[in-house]
Amino acid sequence: MIRGRRVLRVAALLGALAACKSKTDAPPTNERPKPIAAPERQRGGDACKMYVQALCACAAQKPALKDRCDRERALPEALDLALAVDDQPDAVREDIITAQAQARNIIASCVQKTAALPGDGCR
Question: Do residues 111 and 80 touch, judged by C-beta distance below 8 A?
């Protein structure tokens, strides 16, 4: 019984210490994130342009893909806009992080959609 009380005391003490533990997480930094590197920008832009070019060339042969071609033509411009936010010297950190994530998502989408073109009957 004494041992049980001792265990309860130790558990209560540990619980109290855990509840009072000060946060050691660093406060959010206001440092500007590193910009997306030039080679990544170039490869991403090229990937999106090549995807749109291949899709639209295929759409000339397959009219069912024309609407998709028209929509996807905006991808290179969307990438340019995201990269423009990354380049703005007065942009807020959160905006830069969001723009970089969007740019990388667009690039990944272009690469994945290029790989999927043969499934649509495109070369």
Answer: no
DSSP state letter for 90: T
- 63, 73 Cβ separation under 8 angstroms: no
Q: Which residue is associated with the tokens 């936010």?
A: 85
- Domain boundary assignment for the chain: 34-118
DSSP state of 92: -
Tens-binned pLDDT, residue by residue, of the chain (123 aa): 555 555 455 445 455 545 555 555 555 667 889 999 999 999 999 999 999 999 999 999 999 999 999 999 999 999 999 999 999 999 999 999 999 999 999 999 999 999 999 999 998
The amino acid at 72: E
Q: How far is CA 97 from the centre of its chain?
A: 9
- Coil, strand or helix at 36: coil
Q: Give the whole-angstrom CA distance, residue 121 versus residue 104.
A: 27
Q: What is residue 28's three-state secondary structure?
A: coil
- pTM for the model: 0.74
